[in-house]
Design goal:
96 residues; alpha+beta; S-adenosyl-L-methionine-dependent methyltransferases; five-stranded antiparallel β-sheet
Length: 96
């Protein structure tokens, strides 16, 4: 019985640090929302674990609209209410 207790205690001691590491990497359920204002626009960026997945644009005097990822991987966004509308996204400069 004493050997079994020692074995259980040793197992708990070795598993405890792994549980602490796993608790740090658990994704949160709430998105991170960044709000900024550009002229008469209010832009809200929604991120989940650092991944930008939606943008809400509110223009004064117009209904708000959402820009969502077109394919889920790169920075191509489409309007959720008008998916056939093309959103320009040119890369003019790039520094590495």
């Amino acid at each position: 019985m004493r050997a079994l207790n020692r074995l259980l205690l040793t197992g708990l001691i070795t598993i405890a640090p792994m549980a602490a590491i796993a608790a740090d990497t658990v994704p949160s359920g709430d998105p991170d929302v960044t709000i900024r204002t550009e002229g008469d626009k209010e832009i809200r960026e929604y991120r989940q674990n650092g991944f930008l997945y939606a943008i809400k644009v509110t223009v004064k005097g117009a209904p708000p609209y959402f820009l969502v990822r077109a394919d889920g991987t790169d920075a191509n966004f489409i309007r959720s209410d008008q998916p056939d509308m093309l959103i320009p996204s040119w890369k003019i400069f790039e520094w590495k």
